[in-house]
Amino acid sequence: MLSLLQSLFSADLAIDLGTANTLVAVDGEGIVLNEPSVVAVQNGTNRVLSRGSAVGTLAKQMLGRTPDSIHAVRPLRHGVIADFELCEAMLRYFIRKAHKRHWSVKPRVVIAVPGGLTQVEKRAVFNSAERAGARQVFLIEEAKAAGIGAGLPIGEPTASMVCDIGGGTTEIAVLSLAEIVSCQSVRTAGDNFDQAIVEYLKRHYSLRIGDAAAERLKIDIGSAYELEHELSAEVRGLDLISALPRKATITSEEVREALQEPLESIAEAIRSTLELCDPELAGDLVDNGLLLTGGGSLLRRLDKAISEHTGLPVRLAEDPLTTVARGTAICVEHLSQWRSTLESSDHDL
């Protein structure tokens, strides 16, 4: 009876808990929340600001712009909880915002996480979500969720390959019969792209810029392979020699050079994943190819660069920013079907 009442008065949630952004979907409603994974706290403490801008979109706008009394932080680093208290506060805010019910019944929650998490790191996710208001928590690997969300035939006896490039990790997996048969989880992703651009400008221009400016350069003119018409953009920062504000014009060729090292790291992880495959499954991928998802996959001509490195056909998922969230939402909507493939918290209510 209790289980029936819970299902009547509580909508289950799907959460793509990302280093850069957190997306939440409600069973039967789709994605209802997409906000940066950022929390604003009182400096010198772990006390979240009481104002409405303390979590999410407005908190991200504070990054690098706060007074001494306020600090904007990311509770996750490389897909792993770096600050348990702040992650719990962030999850509680997102769950309450998405779970717009007047009842006190807690929802069941399916969370997409990187495939390389240790058991200790998984337990941290379980504990944070439960303390944040979930009555039961399930985990799904991001690569599997991406395959489900993209509509790949992962339940069939044929190989499907996914490369999900998020903010903190890149998840690469070959799937067959609804299971991951080979995978790599590397802590090189979109944040590393931004940091590589920051370091390049320090070395070559003696110019210090913030992560937000580096991200804009990446989006505006960045590419993984040469462009038919190369681009340029103006960037503003602090001169490391004079300590005065200065601007410089950067070309897409320079940004591509800056991104070479993190891109090679991802390409090597893809090759390593392929080497772990059985020959029959690897043969399937000659036709089935590789699917790119995640925000990092939006880098211009990344599909071309990876195709040259692997010899596989590579394509970009439709709406790659939400692929993992949509796959996690499908698991929530059909929980009885997918439950056996998910990792659950110890107690089952």
Q: Which radius of gyration do the C-alpha atoms yield?
A: 21 Å
Structural class label: alpha+beta
CATH topology of the largest domain: Nucleotidyltransferase, domain 5
Oligomeric form: single chain
Total beta strand runs: 18
Count of all domains: 3
Question: Going across the major beta sheet, what is the strand order?
Answer: 3-2-1-8-9-18
Q: What percent of residues adopt helix (DSSP H or I)?
A: 25-40%
CATH H level, superfamily name of the largest domain: ATPase, nucleotide binding domain
Overall mean pLDDT:
89
Topology:
Layout: H1 2-9, E1 13-17, E2 21-26, E3 30-36, E4 39-42, H2 57-60, E5 70-73, E6 76-77, E7 80-81, H3 84-98, E8 108-113, H4 119-132, E9 136-141, H5 142-149, E10 160-165, E11 170-176, E12 179-186, H6 190-205, E13 207-208, H7 211-221, E14 232-239, E15 245-251, H8 252-258, H9 260-275, H10 279-288, E16 290-293, H11 302-310, E17 314-316, H12 323-333, H13 335-338, E18 343-344
Parallel strand pairs: 1-8, 8-9, 10-16, 16-17
Antiparallel strand pairs: 1-2, 2-3, 4-5, 6-7, 9-18, 10-11, 11-12, 13-14, 14-15
